[in-house]
Design the sequence.
């Protein structure tokens, strides 16, 4: 019996879809059976980030309206046998999706998969209600910006009313130099306000955008810090204890020497 | 028989007239006698309006009875009713008075977009996040950080206060007063409270210690009862 995790944020553009794609990929790398669901009807793009756009035949609305079987709509990933995607509809009527419909789909998928990762649309309307309907737990994504933290807080408030586990937090798009200079909220401040469990911190990296544009989630690469961050999140989801990634840029030898002598890096 | 005893006693005081209505007779009897008394004492000429306080003793009046009584007295604009006082109150009224003065303890975080509203005093163990608000008819005590909006004395109690372990609100409201945070980014303050300063006619924020002499009796049940 699998576990359904919804990735949500309230605010748009904080990296829900990227986070969904990468956590899914990272879990697949650890040989878990994973199914990704895009619930952003009308504005689907999880398929694009995964590089599976041209393989779509049926979508989630087709499944709900019983034009096809669930198995037919699932797209098998081109890299992993045990990673699938249930794409959102682009044109169909978005009112077709209901919380009950979602619960039914997720219940069916749980038989087959270890993890079902649900990409939630921005906002707190019907789409949000649908996305969280069948979830067992939630991951809230925020960036170190006031508006994003405010929306995350609102979302956590709404999630607390639902019958799911307390949500975990991913702080995305961290720009270390801004955080240090105090121009961005720092992580402690965010965690203090939201007071939920921090499950991962991801640095803002040009490579993430590049990788998304190529349809190859960054978690597939071994080097970039953002990739390690996503894989760490996946390990924490599996229950491992992984220390938080250091946000310092440790590239220079000089930095390492400085650290060795117990001096603070800049 | 009842002619031997006066049902209505009228006394003149500095603040106008005080009307004692005997509490052992029926309301109709008292009403009748009062009307006779008022008719018997028609004014000769125009007199200024006299304020009247009515003391009912151990009599409880229903709303209709109160209305007909005040209509009778206010007739012809000779008197204005200052107050109708009774030694007894309805159970429901007593319960609502008790609710007004109770401290409601709530343990949660009030997040953005959430509103926590209570009757009486609020003791919140937890934070009020930016965008969240807490509202009470009495005082608000927050054991945690206040970042959002707090509105104390929402039904007009100007003596209400707002106290927090960490005070960095976006707005403080007490009764009909509103004060907001400055436009520049500011750090909050620890262990402070907000209250209305009558002299400056605005909400001020001060150390908790000032409450000891500025609000001597924070919400004693007896005080509320005596003040009505």
Sequence:
């Amino acid at each position: 019996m699998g576990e359904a995790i919804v990735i949500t944020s309230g605010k748009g553009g904080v990296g829900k879809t990227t986070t969904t794609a990468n956590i899914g990929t990272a879990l697949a790398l650890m040989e878990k059976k994973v199914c990704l669901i895009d619930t952003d009807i009308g504005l689907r793009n999880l398929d694009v980030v995964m590089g599976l756009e041209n393989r779509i035949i049926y979508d989630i609305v087709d499944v709900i309206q019983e034009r096809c079987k669930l198995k037919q709509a699932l797209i098998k990933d081109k890299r992993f046998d045990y990673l699938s995607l249930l794409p959102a509809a682009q044109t169909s009527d978005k009112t077709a999706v209901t919380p009950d419909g979602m619960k039914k789909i997720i219940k069916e998928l749980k038989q087959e998969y270890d993890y079902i990762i649900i990409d939630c649309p921005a906002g707190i309307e019907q789409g949000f209600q649908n996305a969280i309907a069948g979830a067992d737990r939630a991951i809230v994504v925020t960036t170190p910006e006031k508006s994003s933290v405010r929306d995350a807080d609102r979302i956590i408030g709404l999630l607390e009313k639902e019958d799911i586990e307390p949500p975990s937090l991913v702080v995305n798009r961290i720009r270390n130099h801004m955080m240090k200079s105090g121009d961005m909220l720092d992580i402690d401040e965010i965690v203090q306000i939201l007071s939920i469990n921090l499950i991962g911190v991801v640095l803002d990296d040009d490579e993430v955008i590049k990788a998304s544009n190529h349809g190859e989630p960054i978690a597939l690469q071994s080097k970039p810090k953002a990739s390690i961050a996503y894989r760490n999140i996946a390990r924490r989801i599996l229950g491992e204890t992984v220390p938080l990634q250091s946000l310092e840029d440790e590239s220079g030898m000089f930095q390492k020497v400085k650290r060795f002598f117990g001096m603070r890096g800049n | 028989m009842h002619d031997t005893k006066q049902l209505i006693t009228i006394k003149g005081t500095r603040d106008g007239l005080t009307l004692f209505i005997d509490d052992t007779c029926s309301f109709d009897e008292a009403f009748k006698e009062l009307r006779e008394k008022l008719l018997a004492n028609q004014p000769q000429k125009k007199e200024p309006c006299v304020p009247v306080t009515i003391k009912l003793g151990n009599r409880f009046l229903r709303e209709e009875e109160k209305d007909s009584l005040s209509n009778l007295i206010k007739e012809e604009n000779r008197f204005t009713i200052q107050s109708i006082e009774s030694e007894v109150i309805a159970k429901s009224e007593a319960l609502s008075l008790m609710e007004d003065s109770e401290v409601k303890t709530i343990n949660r975080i009030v997040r953005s977009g959430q509103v926590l509203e209570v009757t009486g005093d609020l003791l919140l163990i937890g934070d009020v996040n930016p965008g969240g608000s807490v509202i009470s008819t009495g005082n608000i005590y927050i054991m945690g950080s206040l970042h959002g909006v707090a509105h104390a004395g929402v039904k007009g109690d100007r003596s209400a206060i707002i106290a927090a372990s960490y005070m960095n609100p976006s707005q403080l409201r007490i009764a009909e007063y509103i004060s907001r945070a400055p436009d520049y980014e500011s750090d909050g303050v620890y262990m402070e409270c907000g209250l209305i300063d009558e002299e400056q006619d605005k909400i001020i924020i001060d150390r908790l210690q000032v409450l000891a002499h500025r609000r001597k009796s924070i919400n004693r049940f007896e005080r509320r009862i005596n003040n009505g």
User: Anything to note?
Assistant: Chain B touches chain A through eleven residues (CB under 8 Å).
